Amino acid sequence: MSKVLEKLIRSPIVPMLLFILLVSFFAFSLYDPQDEKQILARTFLLLLAALTFTWYVLVKRFNKKNPENRLRSAGLVPSEFLDTDEGQQWITFKACRNVYIFFSVGLPIAAGACFLFSGFVLTPFIVIGVLGVGQYLVYWQTIRKLNKY
Fold first, then answer.
1. Do 49 and 103 share a structural domain?
2. Which residues span the membrane (predicted)?
3. Which of 3, 61, 66, 91 has the highest Cβ tally under 10 A?
């Protein structure tokens, strides 16, 4: 059970889901307060709060059972950057390089999409959402490939 929990917490699934819920909340918050989509905004905010709380509790429980292999529940520096092993540092470097390449291509496309679809109020949120999810996918795809999961 703890291996599954550790794999889930270290995977991009939870941060990606939190990011999608946050972008969805902001996007639906733009609608008129009388609009029924405000219910969706509140639902996304509730889901975001519940998932964040659940994640925090699961990390605390895991850290209590595995003090030698602690996970960080929050922080500015991701746990991947704390690796002292040279092999892991190289893998992290390659993954960050691929994310950098993704953004060097994705940001001009995102700017063009925001310009072309400027009449649609949700365009910036959709573009930011795609860039955020894309970043997680590129990073973790590279990590998985180089670690040969």
1. no
2. 12-31, 43-62, 99-119, 125-143
3. 91
Provide the residue range defining the domain that includes 90. 75-149
The reply to whether 66 and 3 lie within a common domain is yes
Q: H or E element: which one contains 105?
A: helix 86-116
What's the pTM value of the predicted model, to 2 decimals?
Answer: 0.64
pLDDT tens sequence for the chain (149 residues): 567 777 777 777 777 787 788 887 777 777 777 777 777 777 878 888 888 888 888 888 888 887 887 776 665 456 666 656 788 888 889 999 999 999 999 999 999 998 999 888 888 889 998 999 999 899 989 988 988 86
CB 130 within 8 A of CB 17: no
CA distance 149 to 143: 9
Is residue 19 a contact partner of residue 129, using CB atoms and an 8 Å limit?
A: yes
